[in-house]
Amino acid sequence: MADAFDEIVHQSVRLQIMAALDQARAPLGFSRLKAITRATDGNLGAHLATLAKAGYVRIDKTPDGARTRTSAAITEAGRTAFRNHVAALRVILDGGQSNA
Amino acid sequence: MIDRTQAADALAAIEGAQARGSILAGYAHAGDILIAWGMTWIVGNLAAQVAPAIADPLWFIGIAASVLFTILRSRRNPHSGRAALLALIAGVFIIVAGLLIGDVDARLGTALISLVVAAIYAGLGLWIGPRFTLLGGAIAAAILIGWFAFPARLYLWLAFGGGGALVVSGLWFRRA
């Protein structure tokens, strides 16, 4: 279970992003994620990019007139990583250890 | 190495994010429903002000349509079965209360029923999110202002104050 602790997921904003996406049944828009994480635009964008690079989320950009709408969805790899990370946190809380 | 406190904080952050996500999803889902009910309020109350003879049939049609829309819209969200039932119960209450009170004092009946609806929205806020409580307060304020300050134009106040609050709130909620 120590191997399940995921440094990429564990960062505070990324953890909230993954939590929200794991719960949602559909991709979430940038503004929704911003409201959930209370991050700034730049901060949220950077963390989404990190998660996308790790293969944990998929980012879609669709044109909306003159603007671009960004949405994110969790991948299967991301869902597995997040849920394993949550399990690792619970082990630590129950008195186990982490290799972090 | 993270300790138990840090693990607990992380789990709390997860819970907080998911709670905020649920509330915002609830708002977004409710947006179109509020707009539908707002349109019913506007049409029904306008008719009561300017064409009383057709107000009751318009209210009946509007309430039935809004209840149906709420039920159909709620099918998209598997957690909204209770919201759909609440809409049905509220719709039946409004119609029955209107039939009981309407002949005694139509203005008082409309104001009382509207206040009950405002109270329901305010109470919903305790479960779904504080925006509903704000909405209930705004509707109640419109009713009371109309009743005490502009009694001859009560229905207009209910139409644009109460109905307007529902429509504007619906547009706000949709952006959540």
What features would you highlight for this structure?
heterodimer; A: 100 residues; three-stranded antiparallel β-sheet; 3 strands; elongated; B: 176 residues; mainly alpha; 6 helices; 84% helix
Explain how this protein is built:
The complex is a heterodimer of chains A (100) and B (176). Chain A has 100 residues and is an alpha+beta fold. Chain A has helices at residues 7-10, 12-23, 30-37, 41-53, 76-93; strands at residues 28-29, 57-64, 67-74. Helices cover 84% and strands 0% of the residues of chain B. In chain B, helix 4 (106-124) packs antiparallel against helix 5. The two termini of chain B are 37 Å apart. At the A-B interface, helix 2, helix 3 and helix 5 of A face helix 1 of B.
Short account of what is shown:
The complex is a heterodimer of chains A (100) and B (176). Chain A is built from five helices and three strands.
Strand line-up of the largest beta sheet of chain A? 1-3-2
Principal-axis shape of chain A = elongated
What is the global morphology of chain B?
A: elongated
| Percentage of residues in helical conformation of chain A | 55-70%
Largest sheet of chain B: none
Mean pLDDT of chain B: 90
Structural class from helices and strands of chain B?
mainly alpha
Q: What kind of oligomer do you see?
A: heterodimer
Poorly predicted runs of 5 or more residues of chain A = none
Q: Between the first and last Cα atoms of chain B, what is the distance in angstroms?
A: 37 Å
Strand content of chain B: under 5%
Number of distinct helices of chain A: 5
Radius of gyration of chain A: 14 Å
Note the run of SSEs of chain B as H and E: HHHHHH
> What Rg of chain B, in angstroms, do the CA atoms define?
19 Å
Question: Unreliable stretches of chain B, pLDDT < 50, 5 or more residues?
Answer: none
- Give a quick account of the main beta sheet of chain A: strands, pairing sense, barrel closure: 3 strands, antiparallel
Helix/strand layout:
The complex is a heterodimer of chains A (100) and B (176).
Chain A: H1 7-10, H2 12-23, E1 28-29, H3 30-37, H4 41-53, E2 57-64, E3 67-74, H5 76-93
Antiparallel strand pairs in A: 1-3, 2-3
Chain B: H1 4-50, H2 55-74, H3 81-101, H4 106-124, H5 130-149, H6 154-174
